[in-house]
User: Fold this.
Amino acid sequence: MPARPADRRARAQSLPPVPDADQRAITGFLDRAWAESGLSRLTLDSYRRDLEGLARWLAARGGGLAGVDRRQLFDYLADRTAQGYAARSNARLLSALRAYFGQQARLGLREDDPTARLDPPKLRRSLPKALSESEVEALIQAPDVATPAGLRDRAMVELMYATGLRVSELVNLPAAAVNLRQGVLRVTGKGNKERLVPMGEEAQHWLERYLAEARPALAGGRAAAGLFLGRGAAPLSRQQFWNVVKKLALAAGIDPARVSPHGLRHSFATHLLNHGADLRTLQMLLGHSSLSTTQIYTLVAREGLKRLHQQHHPRA
Assistant:
């Protein structure tokens, strides 16, 4: 039987610390990866956690990253699977391992790449979960705009639904990224790539109100570079915005389990496609590097048409 999350955490905490040599190797890899590829801080943090997890598992068996071979990596992945880690988690781990050992081999720090013949776990292609247009409207109307925090929340939800930003892009927006005259945002996405995203009139209206009425109150006279502020004029975090969205869902009468910041991004994409947007435009707005990533939304639209057909056709 797979271990419970609490049991997995307890087991991980019982492992020895990362050996100094492995810690130096991991830090060197991350520094080079940032310099060469401009990976985001979130990706680098994820890589560090995954590599340190492997290093601790190896240390418990008297080994280290420098001498690990394909069989040990296979055993580690199998061990994680037996503990109940999801296929997507193991796929992310394998991506980190490939980046690390590929760099090691490229720099001549080891002769082989032990991940070369490791197959990634098969992932189920799940459809993005989007809210209906009426549910999004209810969510948008939920904040109390008579308060600075409520006005901020309204502007954030409006902006996320209008632009399809990733939650990390939204909370990390600097105030300087907003161009109200042109009605666009300058967004830094994955791989440190910049794109211009149109806001739309409604989102721009609420953003202007937030900047004029709420942000100065939230800043409290402090200098703040971030666009959306929380306590002490600090930028609102991903977790804080996640909590905001859950509270708004409750206020709107929507099951909070069905609502997330990422779900707003999916809703943006699905609704655009339903109203006739083409995939190439959607790709640019979402900041996808590959069109194949965007194509999953055609499946969403197809499933929606099936449901409408079954619901309304007399012979369905």
Remarks:
- Strands lie at 178-179, 184-188, 194-198.
- The chain has a mean pLDDT of 85.
- DSSP finds 14 helices and three strands in the chain.
